[in-house]
Write a structure and sequence with these properties.
The chain is an alpha+beta fold and 114 residues long. The chain has 4 helices and 4 strands; from the N terminus they run E-H-H-E-H-E-E-H. Helices cover 42% and strands 25% of the residues.
Length: 114
């Protein structure tokens, strides 16, 4: 079976590349830490595949997070501390998974890569 993780980034914030990378990293780690242990082990054994996709705004981000939760995929929504680019409390991105490619694609399969 194949496994992957998806990171959803808000495109409306137009984050600088470094800020986006940092926020995506937070989402990847936090969502992975919340995953079931057997999924984590299998995903790590396959090289920890992940994709980064864009969502239009916070509302769309939460829509996909809820869809993932509804089918039992681990999620993590990242809220920025506001020290640099965005206001404190700004939701910047979310992690979904790791889980099976089939389940992840069922949720985010139509989204475009960053």
């Amino acid at each position: 079976m194949n496994y992957k993780q998806a990171i959803l980034v808000r495109s409306d914030l137009k984050l600088p590349k470094g800020k986006m990378a940092a926020q995506a990293s937070h989402a990847a780690v936090e969502s992975a830490l919340r995953a079931e242990k057997d999924l984590m082990v299998a995903w790590r054994g396959e090289g920890m595949g992940k994709i980064v996709v864009k969502v239009a705004d916070e509302k769309e981000l939460y829509k996909y997070v809820q869809e993932a939760k509804d089918i039992g995929i681990s999620t993590a929504v990242i809220t920025d501390a506001g020290h640099t680019v965005v206001e404190p409390g700004t939701v910047t991105c979310a992690g979904i998974g790791p889980d099976t490619v089939e389940k992840i694609d069922r949720v985010i399969g139509k989204l475009k890569l960053v």
